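haha ok so turns out i had the wrong file open the whole time. this is the CORRECT one, sorry everyone. sequence first:
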Amino acid sequence: MTGRFFRSLFWGVLLASVIAWAYAGTVTAGYRETILVEDTVDGLQEDVVSPGETTFLPGLAVPGRIRLHRIQLEPRFLRFPWVYQFPAGQLLGLDDSFAVQVQAHYEYSISVDQIRSLFLSLPVGDWSQLKPYLELRMRSFWAEKMRQLAPNEAALNGLEDDLNIYVRGDLRTELNNYFRQEGIEFRRIYVERIYVPDAGRYNATLQAGQNLLNNRLERISIIDQARAKRHASEILNEVYLDRLEKMAALLQKYPELRDYAAVDSLSDNVRVLVMPYEQYFRGNQPANRQNNQSPVADAPRAEPPVEPYDFTTIEQPETQTPSIPQDRSTFPGMRNNPPQAAAPDGGFRDLTPP
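then structure:
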């Protein structure tokens, strides 16, 4: 009894696996589409799944082995605006109002027999690259055709009528011949706009072309100068920020450099004098207060104040004039001024210039 149960279970699991494998490997194409089969090992297969056809692909049972490329055959539409600028207009940098323009919608279909060669013509094996590929081919076609219809600016007269006749006449036939190898057939062309610039206006603009060219060069020069200034400013900012980072690191390591950094940032026209802080701002008292106090007999006599030192003149000593006497009671930067009276207590002197 138990053996019959396991045999039944085995055959049931096997049958379910076969059904699942057959279901997963069955591929059906729609009535307007075809399917290209790409094997990651064997490459793109020769046989394609035609519209409305069903086929079995055993490789689909292996994950990641088979890639299916589906594409709709018809109807397909391509909107392609063609803008052609003459060489003189390109040199002067004229806008599209001085260019020949043909804007149209193209209805086309893809042949099943040539679909494999079309897929291999794409730069990347993906149908999303079909539109960029067709636009590239259309630009090549129209560039060759415009060189025949309008080789230079003199052909502007009557060009609009020639384009209207050509677009509504021989254009579809020539496009089918041009795309025959890719299996693309154009069914209809819906013209949206055909524009040709006025010949008189175009020639007048060409006559003033030197002024336009000079203005354009001046504008380009201004833009380049602005970019150069911005680049130089960015470099200076980087150098300044790097200097600040290094200074911050030094200040953390040597706090005494804070005074030096403050002095170093001053202008060259500023004279910096270093004076003993305790002696000039704490040790000395006003003269009238000291006279009212009784002197202490055993108190030590106060030392005379130390003359302030001028850091700005240490490397460039002043030239002494023999005819003018030197007064050491004043600052070194004011030695040529008349001597000033010292304070009664020998403390800080009034060094305000007269």
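The first strand starts at residue 26 and ends at 28.
again sry for the mixup
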